[in-house]
Specification:
This protein has 197 residues and is of the alpha+beta class. It has eight helices and eight strands, in the order βαααβββααβαβαβαβ. Strands 1, 2, 3, 4, 5, 6, 7 and 8 form an eight-stranded mixed β-sheet that branches. Strand 3 and strand 4 form a beta hairpin. The longest helix has 15 residues.
C-alpha cells in the first residue's frame, strides 16, 4: 500500500534529502559536492511543503519536488552556500544552481525532480507520485504541469510522453555541459485543466 503525503514530514527530512540528492546526483553534485558535504547543506535548504512524498509501511519510498511561482523545494540561501563553501566557492556554486532554476509562467506547476528509493522501484511509486502531482495541480487551479528531462535519459522522455507530456522547448547547457554531464534538457508540458470545484 502506497501512502501519499503532500509534504515531507520533519522526522523524514534527513532521509528525504539523502534520497533526493542520491537520485539526482548527476544534476546536484556540481552544485553541492559529494554526499557528505551535501547532507550538511540540504536539510537547511529545502521547503518541506513544496513536495509530494510516498510511503510504504511507514518508510519513505519516493519524493517529488515542486516549483511554483513562489519558489522551489530546493532553495538554499546565498548565505548558507557561502557559510558552508566559502565566499568564492559559495558564489560559484550559487551561480551554478541558478543555471538549473526555472521561471514559472502563471498557471504552471513544475516538477523539479522525482526520485524513488532504488529498493522499492517497480511497485508503482513513481506513477503514484506523478498522479498525485497532476491531481494537486488540478485541484489548485493550475492549467498545466511541466518538467525537464536531460538528453541522457531517453527512457524518462518516453515514459512522460506516454503519460501525455509533450516536448515544448529545448535548453542547452553550453560550456557547462561537461560539468553537469548532459548537454540539453527538454521541457515537457501537459495540460491538466483547472479544478471544477
Amino acid at each position: 500500500m502506497i501512502a501519499i503525503v503532500d509534504h515531507l514530514p520533519e522526522v523524514h527530512i534527513p532521509a528525504g534529502v539523502r534520497l533526493y540528492y542520491t537520485g539526482l546526483e548527476t544534476k546536484l553534485a556540481p552544485v553541492f559536492g559529494p554526499l557528505d558535504s551535501a547532507l550538511v547543506v540540504l536539510p537547511h535548504s529545502i521547503h518541506p511543503t513544496r513536495c509530494v512524498t510516498a510511503f510504504t509501511k511507514g518508510r519513505l519510498a519516493g519524493i517529488l519536488a515542486l516549483h511554483d511561482q513562489q519558489g522551489s523545494f530546493l532553495e538554499p540561501s546565498y548565505g548558507t552556500m557561502v557559510r558552508h563553501y566559502g565566499q568564492i566557492a559559495g558564489t560559484f556554486r550559487t551561480m551554478l544552481l541558478m543555471l538549473l532554476d526555472h521561471k514559472q509562467p502563471p498557471g504552471d506547476l513544475y516538477l523539479d525532480g522525482i526520485v524513488v528509493d532504488p529498493a522499492m522501484r517497480g511497485q508503482g511509486i513513481g506513477s503514484a507520485l506523478l498522479t498525485a502531482f497532476e491531481d494537486l495541480a488540478r485541484t489548485n487551479g493550475f492549467a498545466t504541469v511541466s518538467l525537464e528531462v536531460i538528453d541522457t535519459n531517453p527512457r524518462a522522455c518516453r515514459l512522460y510522453a506516454r503519460r501525455g507530456y509533450r516536448k515544448m522547448a529545448t535548453h542547452t547547457m553550453g560550456p557547462f555541459s561537461r560539468l553537469f554531464g548532459f548537454r540539453t534538457t527538454f521541457r515537457m508540458t501537459k495540460a491538466v485543466g483547472a479544478s471544477l470545484s
